[in-house]
Amino acid sequence: MQARPILRPTINLTTDVEWINECFPTQGRHEHVSVYLIRSGEKYIIIDSGSYYHRESIRVRILAATSQSGPGAIILSHADYPHAGNVNTFRREWGEIDVIASSGVPELQGLPYAKKSRIGGSQDVFGRKFSFIDPPLADRSHTSWIYDHASGVLFTADGMGNYHRPGQCGLTFGEFPGGVPLTDIYDFHRNALVWLRYVDPARLRAKLEAIYSQFDISYIAPIHGNPIAVKDLEAFMDRLIETASRIADEYKVDT
Amino acid sequence: MAREFIPGIFWIQECGANLNDLASAMSQDSHNWYRARREVHIPQNAYLFVGEKSLLFDTLSPASSEQIIAELRHILGDRPLDYLVVSHTDTPHAGNTFKIQREYPQTRLVAPRYGDAHELYHLEDALKVGEGDVIDLGGFVLKFHEATFLDAPISVWMTEEKTRMLLPVDWIGMPHMDGECLKCVDELDAVVDVDRLLQFHGRVFFWLQYVNASKIIAEIDRINRHFNPSIIAPAHGLVIRQDASRYMNMMKTVVQVISDHGRIGVVG
Hints:
The complex is a heterodimer of chains A (255) and B (268). Chain A is of the alpha+beta class and 255 residues long. Helix content of chain A is 26%, strand content 23%. Chain A contains six helices and 16 strands. The model of chain A has no long low-confidence stretch (mean pLDDT 95). Chain B has one domain (2-261): Metallo-beta-lactamase, Chain A. In chain B, the strands form three sheets. Chain B has a seven-stranded mixed sheet with strand order 1-2-4-5-6-7-8, with helices on one face. In chain B, strand 1 and strand 2 (9-14) form a beta hairpin. Chains A and B meet through helix 5 of A and helix 6 of B.
């Protein structure tokens, strides 16, 4: 069953990056399953394709935002179904879209036509440089975080996410009174990234801070969370590291 | 390719193409398990249990849709496929679910009960299984377990009671060379050592570089005690049917190396 499509405008994060926020209800709260749209001159790029569940809504919102032309490229953070579930449909609708995927063997992911991106490398798409970062917070091994050099937006796939409540679907982190609550960040990461039960929070923080030092970030744009402007990143990081510490401390190996 | 490596248990393997980058990397340094100019594969495995009823564990990737259907037709003949279990939602494991369901419309889809948002993976109507759940095929008794080391939250491990077989899905994967496809570890000329295990886990279990290694090592001890398997049937490696605990213990060194030195690369 698909969600009933409602035409809602996209949400501008920067002058050329728009958030296509879609939500999935889960146990009284919502989880985003988002797509991001990037305008590069007369062409458009989408980061991930979203879930089949939101297919029609994503489709009409992309059409509205691109003056009915659709995207010319899809850059996938990874091939998990809520992220790649509409690739084939969009290719049928909008023709020969370039699909850039970080999977080392795209045909195993059902993406035999995809161009490979290399984790740790960079690629030019429609005149924009994208870097593909080895992610510290991810589930699938072939995931990459994607940095758009032109806008400074870092697309973080399954990391840096949170649950939210109805009415908060279109807010950025800083638009929540006091920011996204710790409990919504904690619950999301505990459920989505089970390996965090073994994490060393200091190592996680060090890796994240190394990324922030290397890349000039304007926004953190998760697929499963409210985007985080760089001015709010420190507040989010404090909650994220506390989340990681709690998850690790709470899990005891049965000896 | 398929092999009946235990009466009634069929190992269906998708070897895939040569992983050129991995083969090249193995050629540049000394690796005891690798022979020069040989291809390197990291497979996808599915396991078919045929007792009075039948159960398929995982589906291979979409690149091998025709293969899995052909193997099922060959092995089952006119028999139905009673259960189809997806260990987790990754495409290389679950990507042929729809095709198999069309071929065997009466099959009961079985999915992990762990995680949420099953609807996003078309699993809302599947039989949900987890720790304590059992499917008795008559001849084989399959038990389901919360996955210990996993990527997707919707994940499950499985054991078979009679053979004391553990199916730990992505854990204990390993590359193999051409000529080693569908061979059990005890049949190999080359070793399965810490390095061979590291070449897989150091690329796939990227998160091991961010962990408290001693906690993982304690967890390995726990699952070794708890399952005490005689046979390990991984999703991305060769079947281990002798001295399984030795390979479980090797994983402690693998984990420590990744924790100390970081991710060694990617697959492909």
